[in-house]
Amino acid sequence: MISTKGRYALRVMIDLAQQSSDHFIPLEEIAKRQGISKKYLEIILKTLVSENLLKGLRGRGGGYQLTKSPREYTVGEILQLTEGTLAPVACLQANAKPCERKESCSTLPMWQKFDQLVHDFFFQITLDSLL
Asked: pTM for the complete prediction?
């Protein structure tokens, strides 16, 4: 399940993609348009800036803007960044401890296929296609 953090991050990225790319958009404006508390939005924006999905500028005239074109962002990269993983089961998460039942698990192929479907689905959708 996608958390509010992931859903809000996606909404923020779409919001910024809809704005003029030549200036920074203040946090207050984004929060108001999206109905997200400024405090929670700051946490999300910090994550997006730290991973170079956004640029942030402090002070007068500051705010946030995309670092690249909306067609260059995928929903998958945004969700993976904010969610940590999109894996449907713990054994498929990155850095998961090896499962002792891996060789005899009759459901593993199903989970692997589902994981691939989710990955392929979200990584083929761009911000541009959602605008």
From this structure: 0.88
